[in-house]
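Re: weekly structure request thread

Next one in the queue (228 aa):
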Amino acid sequence: MLKPADLFDLTQTEHAKIFEGCDFAWDALKRLKDYLRANLRPALHNRCEGDAFIGDDVFIGEGTVVEDGVMIKGPAIIGKNCEIRHNAYIRDHVIIGDNCVIGNSCEIKHSMLFNGCAVPHFNYVGDSILGYKAHLGAGVKISNVKLTPGNVFVEKEGVPFDTGLRKFGALVGDYAEVGCNAVLNPGSIIGRSSLIYPCLNWRGILPANLVAKNKAAQEIIVWRPRSS
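Done, posted below.
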């Protein structure tokens, strides 16, 4: 499940060419900067609601709404009919597909989002690829740098494999759901239609159609108000 087609419907992006010849899906991140340099044609077809900063190297498609306080540095390509909500921060080297939501106080950096992605509330997405209709719950963070030196490794056939990337967050497959306040550690790979429970600290590969649950114990007691 490490190849692009294992995780992503490549018909759900106008930028499938970036994956051509990639042995592993994360290799597209290595090409992102050059792809934008070659294919970006700056133009703004969006509507602004309030004051936003949009850099010179930005393309935004028709029907997209950019709300007050947004900062889009670029280089960036943003598709049609998206919602870029209040105070979102879209940094350098970002591709966002059609019909996506980038929510309040979310930060996106060096990442690619397929059509229909929802990153709606207080999220950080760095050096990552999110598939068709992938969804991050409120407060989800995708960590993209190890605390220790060196490149990010993933497990390949039971053996640690060097991705060649010092910064690599996650690959989140089509229709995958990540619950509120979960953390995806560097090199996380979430299969198609899989689900990460809220507040989970996830590391590694979760194959398609599986659920990663918390095992945290909960205590329920009778509420006894204090006597006055």
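Helices lie at 4-7, 27-39. Residues 30 and 165 are 8 Å apart (CA to CA).
Next request, please.
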